[in-house]
Design goal:
By secondary structure, the chain is of the alpha+beta class. It has 2 domains: 7-169, GAF domain (Beta-Lactamase, 2-Layer Sandwich), CATH 3.30.450; 189-225, no CATH class. Helix content is 39%, strand content 18%. The protein has helices spanning 7-23, 27-38, 85-92, 108-115, 148-169, 183-188, 191-197, 204-207, 222-225; strands at residues 46-53, 58-65, 78-80, 96-98, 120-128, 131-140. It has a 6-stranded antiparallel beta sheet with strand order 3-2-1-6-5-4, with helices on both faces. Strand 5 and strand 6 (131-140) form a beta hairpin. The longest helix has 22 residues, at 148-169.
């Protein structure tokens, strides 16, 4: 099935996703608003959002739509980067389309999809400022539901969402649990190179190298004593 949308419909959908990305306060709100817009132009039976957790080197399912309560794909499900095709999407920053999942099975996790009636899916990477942060997935009970055109448009729609999600979940890629402006990374450079590179983040005392003039017993500085 090919994607056939008018220029106006594409533009309206992009505007709606952008509005959601900049106005909604949390991951779940962004997800729900985004998929409400996408479902108007790309049919699906299920949708999912998985974010990368470097501490476990896994993709964590943080939001979903259309899944039954007893589905294998529950919130909090973590799949290692080598345990699903989504890991490949994340690593290579390229979308993937499975037109007939029964015939294209590669991983045990995909068998769970087939058992729950899924026959085709489309997955695209979430990339913010060149760094992969997660994967978005559309799934359908129909074979051949998605095409390369669907993947390209979904990738286009994912860009504003990726930036919004990254702003809510930013972490230092080297030190889990810290923000992107990581004090451990700032401190690790040492010496003048670090001070020059991060001068705007250092205190006035730090910019002077941490040196202060000690006052003599009488309370006057060396300069005041002449």
């Amino acid at each position: 099935m090919t994607l056939k949308l008018t220029t106006v419909r594409r533009y309206v959908t992009l505007l709606e996703v952008n509005r959601v990305a900049v106005t909604q306060p949390g991951l779940n709100e962004i997800f729900l608003g985004m998929w409400a817009a996408i479902k108007k132009v790309i049919p699906y039976d299920r949708a999912g959002l998985s974010l990368y957790e470097p501490k476990e080197n896994a993709l964590n399912l943080v939001a979903r739509d259309g899944c039954d309560a007893d589905s294998f794909y529950r919130i909090g499900l973590k799949l290692g980067r080598k345990e699903s095709r989504h890991g490949w999407v994340f690593e290579h920053q390229k979308p993937i389309v499975r037109r007939d999942l029964e015939q294209e099975l590669e991983f045990q996790a995909e068998q769970q999809n087939v058992m729950e009636g899924i026959r085709s899916y489309c997955a695209v990477p979430l990339v913010a400022r060149g760094q992969s942060v997660g994967v978005m997935i559309l799934l359908s009970s129909r074979r051949n539901r998605y095409s390369r055109g669907h993947a390209e448009f979904l990738r286009e729609l994912s860009n504003p969402a990726a930036l919004a999600i990254n702003s809510l979940t930013s972490f230092c890629p080297n030190h889990w649990g810290t923000r992107l402006i990581c004090p451990r990374c700032i401190a690790s450079g040492g010496g003048q190179a670090t001070a020059a590179r991060h001068a705007d983040r250092l205190s006035e005392w730090g910019k002077k190298g941490g040196k202060v003039r000690k006052k003599p017993a009488g309370g006057l500085t060396e300069a005041e004593l002449g």
